[in-house]
Amino acid sequence: MTTTAQETAPRGTTAQGTTVQGTTAQGTTVRETAPGTAPGTASAAAPGTASAAVRRRELAAFLRHRREHITPEQVGLPRGRRRRTPGLRREEVAQLSAVGVTWYTWLEQARDIQVSVQVLDALARTLLLDPSERAHLFQLAGHVDPAPATVCPSVTPAVRAVLEQLEPLPACVQNSRYDILAHNRTYGLLLCDLDAVPPEDRNCMILSYTNTEWRSSIVHLEEAQRLMAARFRAAMAGHLAEPAWKTLLKRLCAESAEFRAAWDRHEVVAHRTKRKEFRNRYVGRVTVDHTDLWLTPEPGPRMVTYAPADEESRQRLEQLHAIALERHAGRAMGR
Description:
The structure is a single chain. By secondary structure, this protein is of the alpha+beta class. The chain is built from 13 helices and seven strands. Helix 2 (90-97) packs across helix 4 (117-126) and helix 8 packs parallel to helix 11 (243-255).
């Protein structure tokens, strides 16, 4: 990742009014100074920044704690004989995250500096944060994690049990961005082999516009794409400033001319029950009735269910469920 002015000690004047000289991970010496400010002296804090200062101190302490509890061996570095700390050094974290050493030092000193979501993502990966720790890091930094959601408080063990009990009916849990947060085995084979899709791509918008197998499974693809784009636009009205939504929109626009055309129509529709037809690679054509079961009082996570619309579709979904069970059993045995 290329280091930006937000992640390194920039040349010239800054609002913090400090003088610091150091070396970035790329080996560039940097110096920061503000006119009229004594070297090493920070300018007076603006009113109303007490809570921000507390959050910066918590962020600094959290980073130090995690750095000190990651061994060099865990990130592929040699320990060496002269290492005085059991964990990683600051310069090692900076190097692994592709940010400046001076900048990262400021971050652990709770200095008032800007940090981007890209660097937070790099730090989370370097420090081997689990999902809860990653969420905590972004919250302390005052950012929303732009990565597609892989966990959701609404996806409880009870909800997962319901998904399983609904089989052979295909069912999944999606959020309002169309991220697939959980699914049962029948749904996992309905439109493609969902378990083979990387977690960051398990999004119905991404799949319907870019995944060949998923697209070929939707009988009325163009209509489905337009409706999905219209629902996405309607839902995004309440999330215009959130990085995760903007990241998804940017990716869709970059990767799909079809999406750009649908998005430019400025159509908006609400979610509603709809009959759908799929062309499954294992059992053939199935017709289902789509229903959304909302998991919270506000439009957000929902359980998507597909009930067979006729007897033939019911039998084919049962066949698909049997195939899914056999595949899962094979994977469990390592075949």
